[in-house]
Amino acid sequence: MKEFEILKEIIEQNNSFLLTTHVNPDADALGSELAFCEILSLLNKKVRVVNHSATPYNLEFLDEKNVVEKYDSEIHKNIFSEADVLIVLDLNQANRVVKMEKGLTEFRGIKICIDHHKDPENFVNHFIGGDEYSATGEIIYDFVEQTKLVKMNKRIAEMIYAAIMTDTGSFRFERTSPKIHKIAADLLSYGVNPTLIYDKIYDQFRIGRIKLLGETLSSIELHADGRIAVMKVTREALERNNATEADVDGYVNYCLSIKNVQIGILFYELKDAIKISFRSKGNIPVNKLAHEFNGGGHSNASGAKIFNTDIETAKEKIVKSAINYL
Ligand code: 5GP
Ligand code: MN
After folding, report:
1. Does the pLDDT of residue 71 top 80, yes or no?
2. Which of the two residues, 271 and 268, has the higher pLDDT score?
3. Cβ distance 21 to 39 under 8 Å?
4. 20, 105: one domain
């Protein structure tokens, strides 16, 4: 890929790098950042990884060297001016970095986006990737393999494996191709332990997550003759169960485990907004549905945030729009 050569040259010609990813990072976001951080460190580059959100507790093991910093406008006021190159990973809209958006928009150095979402916003100098990729981690794998800028090692392989495993829904989503399985096989040959990585990400939760999941499953309502399933998580239930925002990740997928359901929607009460997660089966483009509410994402998995409303009002409006996509 021509873009890989451009990225390789930029890395060779610069010294100081700032990496960031989206709000509430998942394992693709963190795994990709940390793999890239490792690549740059092997090349003796100066690199900082600064994110809007704290790392979710079940993903802390990925950051074994404790390099990820949570953005603080005071502590980090010079990070943008100190970097030659800013690389954003696993997002394609500037507002996905929330408090870091101003720094990103005003950044004077070289801006790069490495991502696999649809319809990228025009906010960087170089866009690397495309929505044919299953995960941002897959792009980084191809980058390493094609440019040979560094040699693959166990640490990079683990980060990429975590990224791909989670963004393919443990190798079951649509982009689970022969290529992805070949990449996974290659990563395992570097010593990645798939049992351990799965266990750390999905089987080490706090009890609060499971109790809250129970309540959330009980809240499921069906609409449109059973083709749309809706669930909700209130702030009150979250706090009562001692759960965190990261615990809610993955709940919405249960909507699609009901026969005949084609669209699943989760409404989740944040402190200042309602977050909505959309999931769909087949060729129902929920990214377009999310777009109607200023969100985005992939055809079968997308999200949005809406302000100044409550769950019930939002639900009525959004279910009405969702029916048009069936
Ligand atoms: P989730 O529902 O798991 O938070 O997100 C599913 C997908 O939708 C992710 O790929 C994510 O990038 C995208 N997404 C979630 N929330 C938003 C949002 O507020 N804006 C945009 N543009 N994309 C989102
Ligand atoms: Mn991703």
Report:
1. yes
2. 268
3. no
4. yes
Whether the predicted model's global pTM rises above the 0.90 cut: yes
- 258 and 290, same domain (yes or no): yes
Q: Do 305 and 227 fall within a single domain?
A: yes
Query: How many distinct structural domains can be found in the chain?
Result: 2
Q: pLDDT of 212-255, one tens digit each?
A: 999 999 999 999 999 999 999 999 999 999 999 889 999 999 99
- CATH code where residue 147 lies: 3.90.1640.10
Residues 298, 175 share a domain: no
Q: In the predicted model, what is the mean pLDDT of residues 169-178?
A: 94
Distance set, CA 194 to CA 62, 184, 299 (Å): 14, 9, 27
Which residues constitute the domain of residue 43? 2-201
Q: List for the chain the helix, strand, coil content (%; round to 5).
A: 45, 20, 35
Within this chain, do residues 190 and 239 fall inside the same structural domain, yes or no? no
Task: Choose among 233, 210, 200, 193: nearest CA to 55.
Answer: 200
Cβ burial 30-49 (10 Å sphere, 16+ → b, else e): bbbbbbbbbbbbeeebebbb
State the distance from the centre of ligand 2 to the C-alpha of 154, rounded, in angstroms: 21
- The identity of residue 89, as a single letter, is L
**Which pLDDT value is given to residue 129?**
97
Residues 247, 209: contact at Cβ < 8 Å?
yes
Specify whether 220 is located in the same domain as 76.
no
- What residues contact 10, with CB distance under 8 A and at least 6 apart? 85, 110, 112, 126
The verdict on the CB of residue 111 being under 6 Å from ligand 1 is: no
Ligand 1 site-directed mutation target among 30, 90, 93, 96, most atoms within 8 Å of CB: 96
- CATH number, domain with residue 279: 3.10.310.30
Looking at 134, 168, 201, the residue that finishes a domain is: 201
302 lines ligand 1 (CB under 6 A): yes
Average pLDDT over residues 18-31: 97
